[in-house]
Specification:
Largest sheet: 2 strands, antiparallel
Distance between the termini: 37 Å
Number of helices: 7
Shape: globular
Strand order of the largest sheet: 1-2
Structural class: mainly alpha
Number of strands: 2
C-alpha cells in the first residue's frame, strides 16, 4: 500500500476547500478598514481563502497524524473526506441555518491492539495541542511581526478548540476512542 494514495490526495483537496468554505463565516481575514469589514458580501472569496489558510492545515494535519501513527504501528490506514456531511453542512450554511456542526474527516485502519489504537486516537488532538502551544510561544516571545499576530492568534485559538473538542469522551470523538481503549490498561 502506498504511503498516500491518489484518492486520499483528492479527499485532502476536497477537505481543504470544504473546510475553507464552512469556516469562512467564523474565521475572517482581519480587516483594518471598518467600512470594508461591514461591506463584505455573503460569498467572500477573500474570507474563504483566509479560512483555507488558517483552518484547513489544522484539520488535515489532525487527520494525517491519525493515518501516519496507524501506519507506524503496521496497520493499513486510509484518510477519507465525509462527502455527505460536507454536502449537508454546506447546504445548511447556504440557507443561513443558525446551528452549525462539522466533521473534518476521518481515518479508517485495520484493527490494532487497544493500547496502539488509543495512541492512534490521541495522535490527531496532540497535533492540535502542539500547534496551539507553538502559536502561543510565537506570540509570547514576539517571534512574529505585528502584521501576523492576529493570524497566529486565530490559528492558536482554532487549534485549542479542536484539541478540547476532539478530546471530549463522547462516542464518535477521538477522546471517546482514546479513553475507551486506555481504561483497561489503567484499572
Amino acid at each position: 500500500m502506498p504511503f498516500i494514495t491518489l484518492m486520499e490526495l483528492v479527499d485532502i483537496a476536497i477537505m481543504t476547500f470544504a473546510i475553507g468554505f464552512i469556516f469562512s463565516t467564523f474565521i475572517k481575514k482581519p480587516e483594518h478598514d471598518i467600512v470594508k469589514r461591514y461591506e463584505r458580501r455573503r460569498f467572500n472569496w477573500s474570507d474563504i481563502k483566509f479560512s483555507i489558510i488558517v483552518a484547513a492545515p489544522a484539520v488535515v494535519l489532525h487527520e494525517l497524524s491519525h493515518k501516519f501513527v496507524a501506519l507506524g504501528f503496521g496497520a493499513q490506514a486510509t484518510l477519507h473526506a465525509p462527502y455527505t456531511m460536507y454536502a449537508i453542512v454546506i447546504m445548511l450554511k447556504l440557507i443561513n441555518f443558525p446551528i452549525m456542526f462539522f466533521v473534518g474527516g476521518y481515518v479508517t485502519h485495520t484493527p490494532l491492539p487497544a493500547l496502539q489504537s488509543s495512541i492512534v486516537s490521541i495522535a490527531g488532538p496532540l497535533i492540535n495541542l502542539a500547534l496551539w502551544l507553538a502559536s502561543m510561544l510565537v506570540i509570547r516571545f514576539n517571534i512574529t511581526s505585528k502584521k501576523h499576530y492576529k493570524i497566529i492568534a486565530i490559528v492558536g485559538k482554532l487549534n485549542m478548540f479542536l484539541f478540547i473538542f476532539n478530546m471530549l469522551p463522547i462516542p464518535g470523538f477521538d477522546g471517546y476512542s482514546f479513553f475507551a481503549n486506555i481504561l483497561p490498561y489503567l484499572f
